[in-house]
Amino acid sequence: MIKNKFTITITDINGSKHFYLNQIIKKIFIYIITFVLLFLIFSGFYIQYLDSKITDVSKKREELLKKSKELELSNIQMQKKVEDKAKEYAAIEDKIASFEEALGLEAENNLTITDRLENLKLTNEQQVEILRQIPNGWPIENKGITGNFGWREHPLLKRKEFHPGIDLRAEIGTPVHASASGVVEFAGYSDNGYGYNVILLHNFGFKTVFAHMMRKDVVKAGQFVTKGQLIGYSGNTGLSTGPHLHYEVRFINKTLEPLYFLNLQRKNMNNFFNQERRVPWQSLVKAVTAQHLAQTQKQQ
Q1: Coil, strand or helix: which one is 140?
Q2: Residues 255, 164: contact at Cβ < 8 Å?
Q3: In the record, what terms sit under GO molecular function (predicted)?
């Protein structure tokens, strides 16, 4: 029996060539099968590669979640320690106040500044000297207060804690000046939530702290500054909810109400000395008087 075959004949000057249609179809089919097989093999390897990557990403995600939980737990523990320390600090403050009262410092502070001036015969120059050496006045332009001194709910941490300073409203870049003459104890960035801050040491055990300032070095540690001298610019660094200046006044490890010192002037000294009773002012007045007399004798 003779089978019919479809033949394609190509003739040129070199002769004729015959191609059977069934052979062409077979070759095309083989090529297609080969391509499909190669594609499936390549796809299998690629899917396996992607699967391994997904597994790696899942492992890293689990590790990050684990670390996140560990950090969250550590943060909670740290917050508890800070809260405990704040309570201990408050208790120590109360004990110090009790000791002062037992030593008679409270009774001394009941004296008015008028009585002290009469007893010690302070001159106008001596009063000015007191104001030059202890913090007084606003370190920035008075734009108002956004946070008071004392116990409050922390605006970020959402828990009750002691606010050791006062928050003064200020736009970023507002000039900050020394509220008394002294020496720079620290100027730089701190990881305690204060951000960039400057700490000044003053005479008679006073210290002022300026926090959340711009990262701009205007003064450096060890530098002497005078009252009214530029020490930096207000900012929004550290643990802060917005631009402002955090301002503290301290006296030998005691945090004092800064508002009294902000409003302190010669004309209201009487009210000031009776408002802030945690400092033995009588001793300070005597020290300033002795200092003034020594300077006068040297000049003579």
Answers
A1: coil
A2: yes
A3: metalloendopeptidase activity
CA distances from 209 to 29, 42, 48, 171 (A): 86, 67, 61, 18
C-beta atoms surrounding 296 within 10 Å: 11
Is this prediction's pTM over 0.85? Answer: no
Residue 118: its pLDDT value, please?
47
Q: Alpha helix (H) ranges present in the chain?
A: 21-103, 105-109, 113-120, 124-133, 258-262, 269-275, 281-299
pLDDT at 6: 60
CA distance 170 to 126: 33
Residue with tokens 């499909």: 36
Length in residues, the chain: 300
In terms of C-beta density within 10 A (0-12 exposed, 13-18 middle, 19 or more buried), how is residue 161 classed? middle
Of 287, 263, 300, nearest to 126 by C-alpha is: 287
Residue 107: its pLDDT value, please? 42
pLDDT on residue 123? 67
Spatial distance between the Cα atoms of 147 and 155, rounded to a whole number of angstroms: 10
- pLDDT, block means (10 residues), the chain with 300 residues: 57 66 76 89 88 88 86 77 66 56 46 47 71 93 93 74 93 97 96 95 96 96 96 95 95 93 87 84 80 74
Tell me how far apart the alpha carbons of residues 9 and 18 are, in angstroms, rounded to a whole number: 4
Rounded Cα gap, residues 133 and 128, in angstroms: 9
- Amino acid letter at 176? V
Amino acid identity of residue 171, one-letter, is E
